[in-house]
């Protein structure tokens, strides 16, 4: 497995912030989720200002971990599951390779 270390480093940097981790825990896993919130609702739920939340969402979007769709005046975000799984697999592969272990990284608990 070839890992682009620059991309992985940027993704891990984006994930290395407690606020962004809290945001990810609140985002739905698909755009069709009935429980989705717009940015203002999400900011209120997390106790953040809307500009602060938008800043963090932009960072997550720039590294490909979240997707979004603008609908009228609202913007809705969700986790890009494939991208998130790829980051986890790349990190697992990198660490396992370094310590000389052969493990199946793609098998995770749901």
The total count of helices amounts to 5
The assigned structural class equals mainly alpha
- Write down the overall geometry: elongated
- Work out the strand percent: 5-15%
Helix content: 40-55%
Mean pLDDT: 85
Read across the widest sheet, the strand sequence of neighbours is 1-2
* Number of β-strand runs: 2
The first-to-last residue Cα distance is 23 Å
Cα-atom radius of gyration: 15 Å
Task: Give the biggest sheet.
Answer: 2 strands, antiparallel
Give helix and strand order, one letter per element, not per position: HHHHEEH
Could you name the ranges where pLDDT drops below 50 across 5 or more consecutive residues? none
Description:
The protein has helices at 5-15, 18-26, 39-46, 50-62, 81-99, and strands spanning 66-71, 74-79. A two-stranded antiparallel ribbon has the order 1-2. It has 5 helices and 2 strands.
Summarize the SSE layout with pairings:
Blueprint: H1 5-15, H2 18-26, H3 39-46, H4 50-62, E1 66-71, E2 74-79, H5 81-99
Antiparallel strand pairs: 1-2
Quickly list its features.
single chain; mainly alpha; two-stranded antiparallel sheet; elongated
Task: State the gist of this model.
With 110 residues, the chain is mainly alpha-helical. It contains five helices and two strands, in the order ααααββα. The chain starts with a helix and ends in an 11-residue tail after the last helix.
